[in-house]
Amino acid sequence: MSNKQASFYQSVDRNFEKAAAFTKHPKGLLEQIKVCNAVYQMNFPVKIGSTYQVIEAYRVQHSHHRLPTKGGIRFSHLVNSEEVKALATLMTYKCALVDVPFGGAKGGVRISPREYTPEQLEKITRRYTVELVRKNFIGPGVDVPAPDYGTGAREMAWILDTYQQLRNGELDSAACVTGKPVAQNGINGRTEATGRGVFYGLREFFNYPEDCKKVGMKPGIEGKTMVIQGLGNVGYYTGAISIEEGGVKVIGVSELEGTIYSEEGIDIVKLGKYRKETGSILNFPGTKTLANRDDWVSMECDILVPAALESQINKSNAKKVKAKIIAEAANGPVTADAELILLAKGIVIIPDMYLNAGGVTVSYFEWLKNLSHVRYGRIEKRFDQNSYVNIVSAVEKLTGKSIGMKEKNFLTRGADEVDLVRSGLEETMVEAYRQIRETYKRKKNVTDLRTAAFITAINKVASDYLALGVFP
Description:
By secondary structure, the protein is of the alpha/beta class. 45% of the residues lie in helices and 15% in strands. Among the domains are: 38-186, 3-Layer(aba) Sandwich (Rossmann fold); 193-358, 3-Layer(aba) Sandwich (Rossmann fold). The strands form 2 sheets. The protein has a 7-stranded mixed β-sheet with strand order 9-8-7-6-10-11-12, with helices on both faces. It starts with 7 loop residues before the first helix and ends in a 5-residue tail after the last helix.
């Protein structure tokens, strides 16, 4: 094995090749599935203060087997062509795996957001959007961006406004981008979506006694210990929801400023507020700071959640991992080289293309909402509520007993938009894991969940291409 670390894109390709060997699709079809269909690199000037800066940016459409293509926009000084291509490629497989009818795409702007004011970031975002519109790399039926590392609802609102100015009067223009503020045609539940999807995916793994037995654990997620690397949007909601709804104990959190530990458990909601107030997770009450920030990788726990950037667990530190399960909340946090080491140690890796799919799933719901021009729950909520009230009233009459007002309100409430979004996401994650597990059990010599997930996704994309008549 070479001492050189495999790049993110090389890792994705190696995982694809490993899984493709278990399929019977023609070589040409597999090559078409693998390659990126369109890569747009742009350089545009933006006036920052009294000077002009030339900004480097990308938009990659990996696969057009389904339209529109879909994928987030990343703002980072580390953005490059290879990274964006790798992320777009993963999006294709991710969408296929969770049965979201999009091709994969991804965007990136090579800047460090911390170095710019909000006004300057708005200039850059709007200028980037203009470039996408000029080349027809954005649109409700063409390519639909979303937030990613370094971006959020604010940036998506700027993209929407710029698009609508350039496409004045387009009926479905709100569907040109997802992850927008709720007040601007967004959807309730989108901010938490990726983290909630991670929780649902983990919970589903622990619902199978046979799978838990392989890593020496009892079924059920309650009481399991967790370490989170990265307290951004994904890491925060993964931890907060796992604690509140799953009874998980988060014992470690790592961020840029350092890594903290508490055997008694860390309240992620309180930690999030503390970091907003102080700018750091260090010295959070009840925790100890580790001497080396990178020691998060070697902390003893049941579940290790890398929720930051790609290639965080690599050939150089994989041997230090003591967790029983690695839950890939980020995109590509474990390199292909590291995976070989981890699997040899008997560690289960729940892959990113499955576990990280909550964001694109709820983005799909937002896109559908924008196309239908009706928010979820508006039509049926009151009808359902009235029906439940009638059922409860009938039960009270038949039994001669009254139900307390608190219990009655709980039993008769109709579903709000966020309830329906969470329900749809939960169903998506449960069904996708079932399909991965079915492939894992059916295919001989498939020894890990990532390969099973890739096989499942490749077969779905291949089926679409064959249905199009591209490969008779």
